[in-house]
Amino acid sequence: MNKITLALASSTTIVAGVVMGFPSTALAAPSHKPYVTHIYLDGKNISNPYHIVAKENPTAQQPTSWIPIWHLFQALKSLNIQSTWDGETWNLQLPSGMNADLGSIPAQQTVNVNEMEISLNGTVVQYAPRIAYKDPGGNVVTSYAPIWYLMQVLKRVDIQYSWNGTDWKMNQATNTDKLDVVQGFITALHILPDSNGTNPFDDVPDSDWPYVHAAIEHGYFQPTSSTHFGSLDDINMSTVDHAYQAYIGIPDNEMGWQAGGDLAKWANIIGLNNDISTSVPMSTADVAQMTGNLTRLFNGYYKDSSGSYHLVFKPYNAYPIYHSNRVVTESFVSLGQADAVRNIDGIAMTNTGSHEVYQIPGLSSKAPEELTVGNIGIATSNTYFSLNHGGSWGFAEGFFGYDSRDPDNGGTPNPPSSVLVKDVGETKINAAQINQYDGITFGSVDITFDANGVPQFSYSSGAANQ
User: Signal peptide span per the entry (predicted)?
Assistant: First the structure.
């Protein structure tokens, strides 16, 4: 394949990236039409810059595709590849364990203002042209390099790619294996490993047998045969979805009652598959993402870098709770649970020391969904709400505190995108769906604080309907 055909479409090995703040380069080109680009890493869409098509030099017969290097920084960072730039040399520092092919490197040369050199761990492996052009995404001048040259560099570290003129898909060459996924699954969900019995598998080390034994006896994962587990086999995230379905305790014939109505939709809605492709073998990065997703689902929350807590809906089997309720249907329960997941997952909380502030989705009082937040059922309410980002506060004196469907306690037909609720002490949050008879609760969480002021989240989703 040559540089010309790459401008249209190709398929081999490539990735690239570099640090923010590149200095302006020479050869400021005339106007170029921007083309939408989607950059994927291991099935995840990580960036959406614009690329341009331009000649490599004035005498070139055909144009080629150029991409702004700045937008590739996140791709490399996701692979733990660090980049430095000194105005003419872009050095990619590879992480421990990632090897580079340093054979057939070019002869040393001096670069001019229209060129750059690219090095791996300090060794120059490629010289490439560069141009300065405005990035439509950021509206600033940045450095562009031809995809073909970037391909020559990154294929030295065995990163697979495909380029169709719009989508740039990259995958790490090494996939993870079934045993690593099983260990991550068991650990993230705090399932006790079981060392009892004799290890019958010829591909499971005795040190890993407790994890495999626990996974099999609970019915989460299955061996290839009675003597072979398939430890080194590739595995897709869809297999993990089935394992988590079994962990929650949902038989196949009851999936219609869950959010989304089937396993694939349910796993996506609850966030199990966040940032993981289910159709390709899992990579080591996918395993890390999987354990993070499972940990959030297990805890029912996560804490971000700013100190805010974000609620995460804890899944449960809706069928035994709702199927005997004559005023609901399977489709109503499936929709209600999906909406409850979205609304619970949309709540963030900050503890100021004297009170808590909840940022919740703004729901119309005319919507079939309902959110309530406050000191439920107490004689004196401590709950206040704001519909203008904290500019003013109203007092919620109703039984449920703030109620998105109650005009006297914050409900409005035209709410802002988010509502603030201020509370002190124990807080009860309910996410419900309204039918022609009543409100049916599908998500419920109590939030209290320990002696150190750390919030404790207790989910009782669906319990009120049992």
Answer: 1-28
Residue 266 near residue 255 (C-beta atoms within 8 A): yes
Residue with tokens 């099983």: 182
**Whether pLDDT at 453 is above 80:** no
pLDDT band at 366 (very low <50, low <70, confident <90, very high): very high
Instruction: Go through the chain and tell me how many residues it has.
Output: 466
d(CA 142, CA 20): 9
3-state helix, strand, coil in the chain (%, to 5): 25, 30, 45
Lowest mean pLDDT among 92-106, 267-281, 299-313: 92-106
- Angle between the 178-188 and 237-248 helix axes, to the nearest 10 degrees? 30
Query: Would you call 140 exposed, middle or buried from its count of C-beta atoms within 10 A (0-12, 13-18, 19+)?
Result: exposed
| Residue in 175, 151, 152, 146 with CA at minimum distance from that of residue 162 | 151
Q: How far apart are CA 459 and CA 315, in angstroms?
A: 10
Q: Annotate 1-37 with b (16+ C-beta within 10 A) or e (fewer).
A: eebeebbeebeebbbbbbbeebeebebeeeebebeeb
What is the band of 323 on the pLDDT scale with cuts at 50, 70, 90? very high
Q: Poorest-confidence range of 33-47, 256-270, 374-388?
A: 374-388
Residue 205 burial class via C-beta count within 10 angstroms: exposed 0-12, middle 13-18, buried 19 and up = exposed
**For residue 243, what is the enclosing H or E element?**
helix 237-248
Q: Burial letters for 38-64: b for 16+ Cβ neighbours within 10 Å, e otherwise?
A: ebbbbbbebbebbbbbbebeeeeeebb
Strand order in the sheet with 439-449: 402-403, 369-374, 427-434, 439-449, 455-459
Confidence (pLDDT) at 284: 81
Number of DSSP helices (H) and strands (E) in the chain, helices first: 10, 25
Residue tagged 């640090």 (tokens) = 19
Q: pLDDT for 141-180, tens place per residue?
A: 888 888 888 878 888 887 777 778 888 888 775 678 999 9
Residues with Cβ within 8 Å of 292's Cβ and at least 6 positions away in sequence, in order, are none
Q: What does the alpha-carbon distance between residue 199 and residue 234 come to, in Å, rounded to a whole number?
A: 22
**Given a cut of 50, is residue 236 above it in pLDDT?**
yes
CA distance 272 to 293: 6
| Euclidean distance between CA atoms 26 and 143, whole angstroms | 9
